[in-house]
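Thiol peroxidase structure dump, as promised
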Amino acid sequence: MAQVTFKNGPVTLVGNEVKVGDKAPGFTVLANDLSPVTLKDSEGKIRLFSVVPSLDTGVCDAQTRRFNEEAANLGDNVVIYTVSVDLPFAQKRWCGAAGIDAVQTVSDHRDLSFGEAYGVYIQELRLLTRAVFVVDANDKVTYVEYVPEATDHPNYEAAIAAVKALA
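structure tokens r here:
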């Protein structure tokens, strides 16, 4: 299992660690309108999953804005999701205030389906740790980053390069 810290303290990740080459695990999260979103909904597309603890924090805000900006250069065959346990209503409000229109925010608050499937659920906090996953059009995981310290930024350049390598 990936080892991460949150504010420099060790935390327990629940679920299965995902590795490059794995078949992407299925999940069910909620869109901002409370409709279910699954891996199959974006079948045949390249997916980037940007996982954050909460959109209401500076690094999570910056991470989502950065991937939103990058989306314009990635083409129509790429879907970018920001996954958190923030309530769908809060995600929708945040996206409106931040002008986020190219990234789809989805909520894992209900049953932590994504968190457990991708090994990013922090047991002690009931939050998701910061991570980035790239999944190709055939549901194969091609890039994984579990950010070692959850309050740090991910490697944006490496994640974007992984998407561009598939496009």
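Residues 131 and 146 are 4 Å apart (CA to CA).
lmk if u need the other ones
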